[in-house]
């Protein structure tokens, strides 16, 4: 079957994935495989802009790849690889940096946010982050980049860099990527407050056991105004209800929506229902993950093979790029 074009997306190696990663990105990556030729990259080089040590990088890359594969990334169809395995991206990054205005990079909201987050480590790589991201995308001649709303300015920026490059060297060697806005699903953590993230420890790990999952779900913050079991609740402000809407059968959602408001169902029961549905949903993922773990070196082989396939595309692009630039 001919596909509609090439999708590229990248994510930093954050180790074991959580429900927020799954609902916000991975699920979408899996679905896109049906329509597109997909290239998915674990961006370890980008990670270097923020980490203090590289000691967890290998394990985090491995665990993330494992979760992606267990969730349904098909390595025979798609390319799953590690950014640093294709060093051509660093070369392209350098060339692209010369057609990128520094002031535009330092003006980006994501850069300003990083300055706030790590004022003691405003490194050169941090400024060039979106240029490296552009190199990722265009190296593989990607047509479409699925990203969340926070990354959308980076893709717009990538398009500008591509136009500058193609104009400067009078070429069509680089393709302007299109953004594909993923269904905006901001998953709130178990604290009921912030976006689910590992660093805030408000996450539910996909690979956790059913018992651990129940324990985490029990900790979820519900409608804060509902103090006692006999108080009526408001599902509209309850994160557990939001999760039910994503995860549970419609009849159950409707029942909770009605019963919570009249104190017909309590939070403990409501959470337990969610945990049960979540565990059921994650059953195939967990089974697949266990199977992959038992196949020693399988994940490493997948990443190695993906790297080689990615590199073959990258090398072709770089020949065109160097030619267009008339490098001696
Ligand atoms: N910047 C992305 C993030 O922080 C990760 C990333 C790197 C990426 N290269 C990319 C995303 C290319 C899409 C396309 O989440």
What tags apply to this protein structure?
single chain, 328 residues, mainly alpha, Rossmann fold, Tyrosyl-Transfer RNA Synthetase, three-stranded parallel sheet, two-stranded parallel sheet, 14 helices, 5 strands, elongated, binds tryptophan
Shape: elongated
Q: Order of strands across the biggest sheet? A: 1-2-3
The helicity comes to: 40-55%
Low-pLDDT runs: none
Report the order of strands and helices: EHEHHEHHHHHEHEHHHHH
By CATH's scheme, which homologous superfamily of the largest domain applies? HUPs
CATH class of the largest domain: Alpha Beta
> Please, how many helices?
14
Q: How much of the polypeptide forms β-strand, as a percent range?
A: 5-15%
Distance between the termini: 41 Å
- Structure class: mainly alpha
- Total domain count: 2
Which fold name corresponds to the CATH topology of the largest domain? Rossmann fold
CATH architecture call of the largest domain? 3-Layer(aba) Sandwich
CA radius of gyration is 22 Å
Provide the list of bound ligands, each named once. tryptophan
Mean pLDDT: 95
